[in-house]
Amino acid sequence: MDEAKEQGKDLVQLARLALAGRPQDIQTYVTRISRKYQKLSPELGEQLKELMKLAPTRQSPLRSEGVATIPVDRDSRLQLLRHEPGARLEHEPIWTATVAEQLGQIVSEHLRSDELLAKGLAPTRTAIFTGPPGVGKTLAARWLAAQLDRPLLTLDLSAVMSSFLGRTGTNVRHVLDYAKGVTCVLLLDELDAIAKRRDDAQEVGELKRLVTVLLQEVDDWPEGGLLVSASNHPELLDPAVWRRFEMQIEFELPEKDAVQQAIQLFVDDAAALNGSWSAALAEVLCGQSFSDIERELKSLRRQAVLSKCPLADLFPRLIRQHIDGQPKTARKDIALRLAEAGLSQRSVHELTGISRDTLRKLNQADEHPLEQN
To answer: Which of 7, 88, 321, 344 is deepest in the core (most CB within 10 A)?
Structure first.
């Protein structure tokens, strides 16, 4: 009798998943009950096990077959998702140790999902990335897609707010239902856009409905899928939003060591960038995001090409742009690095405002550090 009740519960759950159009979740559920029935009903358990052997793998699941085209706006006919079929990275990301560990865990869980399922567990389904603009949140989503060999689908919620707000979240639901049917990494960008617009008295009802739709979809995200949200303003998010995400990853502005790595990466000219220039540039660029650093250095490289001058000759121009507002201790460090890079004391003084006498003392202190103790 107990066995019949168990089979009845499992049949109802399978029917629910089938009617909801969630074949990947059906696979997950069948995998679980096949282990259970190997004890309760060995013959049935073995049949389910054999069926799973014939089913598509998790790397190429059933739900990727026969997928509909990407949803479009009914008026403009523009696609509602940005689709990157093969995520490509221009360069290796620079992460803090904590961020690298958390991202690596997500990848490991999905690549070794069978080991987790064997213990009744599932890989992380949802994660939220927070931090200021330009620190690598979107890059991290693209990196995850590349590591898992999945397409990256991006839904920009700030665009959703302007385009779909009067439609009570219907189009958003269509988009997320579509993404559930594709083996992908889905990025919900600008999640805080919803919170930012809650003070609009005319639209508050629509906003509440849209938030409800999103939270329901996140709750219902299928096992084996990966949904990532990104927010530049986590302080605006409702506590109910935080509870929906299994992993929370905070991206911070890069520290000086990471800034120096970024400079070496984006300059891409070892001959132009000796250690002293790298250290001096890191001093003035510290506190900026990776995207800001990349933008400024690429601009400098373009100027070097068009003016047909060595890139290193333009580094002082970048120093000059950022030296104002630097504390005196930082300007002293910058002055010392510039002297080491080969600039004259006069040029160093003009760039940093540090006097020649002070620079000579800094040089002596740097050459004989033990004598200063």
So the answer is: 7
Model pTM score:
0.73
Q: Which residues pair with 185 in a beta bridge?
A: 152, 226
Name the nearest CA neighbour of 231 among 158, 331, 306.
158
Beta-strand pair 185-189/82-84: unpaired
CATH 3.40.50.300, the chain: domain bounds: 82-250
pLDDT tens column, 301-326: 999 999 999 888 888 888 888 888 78
pLDDT at 371: 41
Q: Confirm if 273 and 267 have CB atoms less than 8 A apart.
A: yes
pLDDT exceeds cutoff 70 at 364: no
Amino acid in position 51 = L
Per-residue pLDDT at 64:
44
pLDDT per position as a tens digit, 276-298: 788 888 888 988 999 999 999 99
CATH for 82-250 is 3.40.50.300
- Please give the C-alpha separations between residue 192 and each of 130, 168, 235, 243, 284, in angstroms, as whole numbers: 10, 18, 9, 15, 31
How many angstroms separate the CA atoms of 236 and 246, rounded? 19
pLDDT per residue as tens digits for the range 48-66: 766 765 554 443 333 444 4
Bridge partners of 130, per DSSP, are 231, 250
CA 52 to chain centre: 33
Burial 125-155 (b: 16+ CB within 10 A, else e): bbbbbbbeebbbbbbbbbbbbbbbebbbbbb
